[in-house]
Amino acid sequence: MVACGLACWRCRWLLPLLLGLAIIMGIIALAGRGWLESESEPYVQQASLWESCTRGEEDLNWSCESLMDYGWGRAAAATYLVGFVILVICFALAVIAFSIEILRFNFVRGIGGLLFVVAAFQIIGLVIYPVKFTEEIPLIGDNMFSWAYGFGWASTVVVIGCAFFFCCLPNWEDEVLGNIKPTYYYSSPERAPYLN
């Protein structure tokens, strides 16, 4: 039987690995042009966190307008970006914490608290963007919030999950460090005559 409990050294790297995955998804969300796209042909509108682009049905060139000219655009970009920067810091702290032989579990719990702050910043940015975008930018045709916006939410969901695990990990300090002696259950033949 092969088992990888919390005491397994390799399993301790799962949380930093998940944070690395959240960083990759955050990079895709920050760089992607698919926050908002036209739902069907003709594809006449697309937007990123930074700009909104439109074009005519027969035109091949996009005409882009910066969302940084709007207060809500700066707020959405700033809150998501601040959350992303704190996420990168948490990743570095997690790698350091799990590299040390003797973990400082209050340090790990602090990383969990910072991850909740990351989630709050990212959620604020991800909520401001669609609400204000649909109010202030004229939409052409049928549009949908698309793949890059979805990567932003996926990053946030992973961060929330990791925050809970980082906060709860100190409760299993002995299991993680392998300090628990195994418990053996046995009975004598007098107590269990059916084993004979």
From TrEMBL:
Keyword 4Fe-4S listed: no
Swiss-Prot/TrEMBL keywords: Apoptosis, Cell adhesion, Cell junction, Cell membrane, Cytoplasm, Membrane, Transmembrane, Transmembrane helix
Matching Gene3D superfamilies: 1.20.140.150
InterPro entries in the record: P53_induced, PMP22/EMP/MP20/Claudin
Location of the protein in the cell: Cell junction, Desmosome; Cell membrane; Cytoplasm
An example Gene Ontology CC term for this record: desmosome
Biological-process GO terms, alphabetical: apoptotic process; cell-cell adhesion
Recorded family membership: Belongs to the TMEM47 family.
Protein name per UniProt: p53 apoptosis effector related to PMP-22
Organism this protein belongs to: Probosciger aterrimus
Gene: Perp_0
